[in-house]
């Protein structure tokens, strides 16, 4: 009987270790993410090279960097105005979308004038940021890499996957909001 109690005590103490965590069957290395990052960097470098070639060959215009990865030159400058659109302002604008080879994807007539509430509505990233660089009655042509246009998804219509674009944007009117005066 003593042996049976002793045996039961040994079994009870040895089984109190608790559950052991399971080891993962696969260990993720992040190699897919690393490949994607490399592919995107290579694509951006290729598109920037195309854009720099366009700028180099355009001796008629002076290009400026937008600070976010696009470049632009003025078509029409307004030196009398000094106000740039700010968050919540209503901006009436026109724009077109071309390929870098100047083939029309969407004309400004097909898009029509739009009214945009700055930083509150969804436009492609390059356009959202470019609006803030122009004053009323100014027009500029912007060169956008695909990451600032419609990216890896396109627009599900005429703009394909990873297509860099050119767009001439004209600010027709800026309605300042009371907080921005």
Structure description:
The structure is a single chain. The chain is of the alpha+beta class and 181 residues long. It has a domain of 119 residues: Chitinase A, domain 3, CATH 3.10.50. It is 28% helix and 23% strand. It is built from 4 helices and 8 strands. Strands 1, 2, 3, 4, 5, 6, 7 and 8 form an 8-stranded antiparallel β-sheet that branches. Strand 1 and strand 2 form a beta hairpin. The longest helix has 27 residues. The mean pLDDT is 90.
Helix and strand topology:
Elements: H1 2-14, H2 31-57, E1 64-65, E2 71-76, E3 90-95, E4 97-99, E5 104-106, H3 108-111, E6 114-117, H4 125-130, E7 139-144, E8 165-175
Antiparallel strand pairs: 1-2, 2-7, 3-6, 3-8, 4-5, 4-8, 7-8
Characteristics:
181 residues; alpha+beta; elongated
CATH architectural type of the domain at 62-180: Roll
Q: What is the average per-residue confidence, as pLDDT, rounded to a whole number? A: 90
Q: Whole-number radius of gyration?
A: 29 Å
Count of DSSP E strands?
8
* Shape call: elongated
Secondary-structure class: alpha+beta
Into which percent range does the helicity of residues fall?
A: 25-40%
Number of helices: 4
| Main sheet: strands, sense, barrel | 8 strands, antiparallel
What is the terminal separation in angstroms?
94 Å
CATH topology of the domain at 62-180: Chitinase A, domain 3
The sequence of SSEs as H and E is: HHEEEEEHEHEE
CATH class of the domain at 62-180: Alpha Beta
Strand content is 15-25%
- As residue ranges, the low-confidence spans are none
């Amino acid at each position: 009987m003593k042996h049976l109690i002793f045996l039961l005590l040994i079994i009870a103490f040895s089984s109190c270790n608790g559950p052991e965590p399971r080891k993962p069957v696969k260990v993720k290395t992040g190699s897919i993410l690393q490949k994607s990052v490399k592919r995107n960097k290579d694509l951006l470098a290729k598109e920037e090279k195309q854009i720099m070639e366009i700028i180099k060959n355009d001796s008629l215009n002076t290009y400026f960097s937008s600070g976010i990865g696009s470049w632009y030159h003025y078509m029409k400058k307004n030196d009398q105005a000094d106000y740039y659109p700010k968050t919540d302002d209503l901006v009436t604008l026109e724009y077109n979308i071309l390929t870098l080879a100047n083939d029309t994807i969407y004309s400004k007539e097909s898009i029509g004038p739009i009214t945009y509430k700055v930083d509150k509505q969804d436009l492609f990233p390059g356009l959202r940021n470019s609006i803030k660089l122009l004053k009323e009655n100014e027009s500029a042509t912007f060169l956008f890499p695909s990451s600032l246009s419609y990216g890896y998804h396109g627009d599900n219509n005429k703009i394909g996957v990873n297509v860099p674009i050119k767009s001439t944007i004209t600010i027709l009117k800026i309605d300042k909001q009371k907080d921005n005066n």
